[in-house]
Design a protein that fits this description.
The protein is an alpha/beta fold. The chain is built from 10 helices and 15 strands. The strands form 4 sheets. Strands 6-5-4-7-10-14-15 form a 7-stranded mixed sheet, sandwiched between helices. The chain has a 3-stranded antiparallel sheet with strand order 1-2-3, with helices on one face. The protein has a 3-stranded antiparallel sheet with strand order 8-9-13, with helices on one face. 5-S-methyl-1-O-phosphono-5-thio-D-ribulose (MRU) binds next to helix 2 and strand 9.
Length: 358
């Protein structure tokens, strides 16, 4: 394990590990290399914007809130690079960096949300001395990190209240401390239920092809002592038909104004099965994932990733050479399949966002 300098001190994640942290000198971004988990706990140190961008694009760090925070720390590094620049050059430098960060992964709105906030801050302080602009950017980025952890804790409690005292929850992908500033969204709901002494069992879908469920969700829950059973994605219908699942709780990368939700590929299928079996599906998100500027799910750009993630595993070919593969990373779950959108502002009817949300 490569230990980061803040190890053993109070990391902003509030956990023994962090998806991302900014070093105290505001120059280095530490990202836990999630591609290596659960076999190895190693941090990648990003000392420049290019390192931050590739960490997001290559999924060293992933999960909507976590990549938003990582992008914010990328803006801090950019502000540090630009301390000697005049106001206009500083702004154009940050706009260039912001555009590159936003292009690194398109679906999670948290990334664009963080970059837009960073740019607004840069514009507000552009005439100030470079070191002050840099400090302000670092203070803002750390604050959105803290706010995300607080939002996750709050929505976790709200979501936990929706679950029974003895409950078996199915979840998809990874939505825990690894996917957020700390604590988690759907896993935050599960953690809060566990902390409230509910008898919680979890089924974690393995989440082909990147295996966020099998590798990351299982790793997080197991180290917290929360009972978790991994199933393959194709077992969901069977488990539901056997009466093994009481509720489904997932996260999201973007919630459109009409309540449609983009989340990890496979969520739509799980939602259809849940509806068929009369099992409630909760989508847990911080408000930073709600995008009222995007009218419907059909307007959300869904990332398509390299087919190699599907055709190979650990460098070994799985499919015959020359056979095509299609690798969409996300799908859309329509609002009508969602029981409630669990946010730090409350458990909302997703179909009510059109009418002004909460
Ligand atoms: O491709 P990933 O691993 O970044 O996808 C992550 C998800 O789909 C999560 O469910 C979503 O970001 C919510 S994380 C709190």
């Amino acid at each position: 394990m490569t230990l980061p300098p803040w190890h053993g001190q109070q990391a902003l994640s509030g956990a023994a590990y962090s998806a991302v942290e900014l070093d105290e000198d505001d120059r280095r971004v530490y990202v836990l290399d999630q591609r290596l988990l659960p076999l190895e706990e190693r941090y990648r140190i990003c000392t420049d914007v290019a390192g931050v961008v590739t960490s997001i694009g290559d999924m060293v760090v992933r999960g909507a809130p976590a990549i938003g925070i990582t992008a914010a720390y990328g803006m801090v590094v950019a502000a540090g690079d630009g301390v000697t620049l005049e106001a206009a050059d500083y702004l154009s430098h940050l706009h260039g960096v912001g555009a590159t960060l936003m292009a690194s992964r398109p679906t999670a709105v948290n990334l664009a949300w963080a970059v837009q906030q960073g740019l607004a801050l840069a514009s507000q302080h552009r005439q100030e001395p470079g070191t002050e602009r840099w400090q302000q950017m670092a203070a803002w980025a750390r604050q959105i990190h803290r706010d995300d952890v607080a939002a996750c804790r709050q929505l976790g409690q709200i979501g936990a209240a929706c679950l029974g005292d003895k409950t078996t929850v199915l979840t998809h992908c990874n939505t825990g401390a690894l996917a957020t500033g700390g604590y988690g969204t759907a896993l935050g709901v599960i953690r809060a239920a566990w902390e409230a002494n509910k008898d919680v069992q979890v089924y974690a879908c393995e989440t082909r092809p990147y295996l966020q469920g099998a590798r990351l969700t299982a790793w997080e829950l197991h180290r917290d002592g929360i009972p978790v059973t991994v199933i393959s994605d194709s077992m969901v219908g069977h488990c539901m038909s056997q009466g093994r699942i009481d509720a489904v709780v997932v996260g999201a990368d973007r919630v459109a104004k009409n309540g449609d939700v983009a989340n990890k590929i496979g969520t739509y299928g799980i939602a259809c099965l849940a509806k068929l079996h009369d099992i409630p599906l909760y989508v847990a998100v911080p408000w930073s994932t709600v995008d009222l500027a995007t009218p419907t799910g059909a307007d959300i750009r869904l990332e398509e990733r390299d087919p190699i993630e599907l055709t190979q595993f650990a460098g070994q070919r799985l499919t015959p050479a020359g056979v095509a593969a299609y690798n969409p990373a996300f799908d859309i779950t329509p609002a009508r399949l969602i029981e409630a959108l669990v946010t730090e502002k409350g458990a909302l009817d997703p179909r009510g966002l059109d009418r002004g949300g909460c």
